[in-house]
Amino acid sequence: xxxxxxxxxxxxxxxxxxxxxxxxxxxxxxxxxxxxxxxxxxxxxxxxxxxxxxxxxxxxxxxxxxxxxxxxxxxxxxxxxxxxxxxxxxxxxxxxxxxxxxxxxxxxxxxxxxxxxxxxxxxxxxxxxxxxxxxxxxxxxxxxxxxxxxxxxxxxxxxxxxxxxxxxxxxxxxx
Length: 175
Known about the structure:
The protein is mainly beta. It is about 10% helix and about 40% strand. The chain starts with 8 loop residues before the first strand and ends in a 32-residue tail after the last strand.
């Protein structure tokens, strides 16, 4: 049932980001890395994208559509819909006014940021693995929660002080 038409697109409503990997790729399970973001929103706000995803599943898989993997789930505690969008390529960033943010000036986006996501809806059928995915293309930053990865600790008097001439590396922790 493979279709040859152009892939459908999606654009979410505003949602709250969960574990975003938008500034650099997550390499934990993929050596090449994956840019990804989960986005939580109310069922009403999610309705349009959920319908588009289900339509893509129906078009591609027919009667099996209800059994394939979907790029969203319902949060058991809140009832909110959580979308997952991914890409091998870094998404383009846009501010709340719709202005493109140059890659060099992209802020460090942390969980809790209010975002909108857009991209393509894609189906896949690889062996027993069938489903629909959201391919991330653009991120609109509505309300930024930014992190710097800087040292959160201040000076403590009378404690351990590393020797200034030491060549110690912070990369060799043994926990």
